[in-house]
Amino acid sequence: MYSVKIASNPNEVNAIIDLRDKMLRQPWSQPRETATDELEETSVNAFIADENGHVIACGRLQENANKVGQIRYMAVDSAYQGKGLGKLIVQFLEDKAKEKKLVKIELQARENAVDFYKANQYTIKEKSFLLWG
């Protein structure tokens, strides 16, 4: 059984950024630096680790203006996709958003992730810009 945790130290945050880089940046030949930003310390970084302690799934909840939450940097290692880990991360981040009394959650999804978010009760508000073509 997998459990979701919140990153509590720099090593955990770095392991999360490693997974983001592997899954979200390397396929588009983007630098590792784009897998993080200045909001790491004020955001909720959730992750799931395997039995050896390697981060295999992650997602981040940040609070934007007007008590609006944003889920960002969702990633599941390709060897673990289809096992419900992304859903566990989303549910965990939604619970954290409720605790923070955020009024709604927004996100921007890659086209290949739209069905995942629809299955988790998210709706398309508008088509967004494209990263890296």
Structure description:
There is one protein chain. This protein is of the alpha+beta class. The chain is 28% helix and 23% strand. The chain has three helices and five strands; from the N terminus they run βαβββαβα. It has helices spanning 10-25, 85-99, 114-119, and strands at 5-6, 44-49, 55-64, 68-76, 104-107. A five-stranded mixed beta sheet has the order 1-2-3-4-5, with helices on both faces. The longest helix has 16 residues, at 10-25. The radius of gyration is 14 Å and the shape is globular.
Task: List its traits.
3 helices; 5 strands; alpha+beta; globular; 133 residues
What's the short version?
This protein is of the alpha+beta class and 133 residues long. The chain has 3 helices and 5 strands, in the order E-H-E-E-E-H-E-H. It is globular and about 35 Å long.
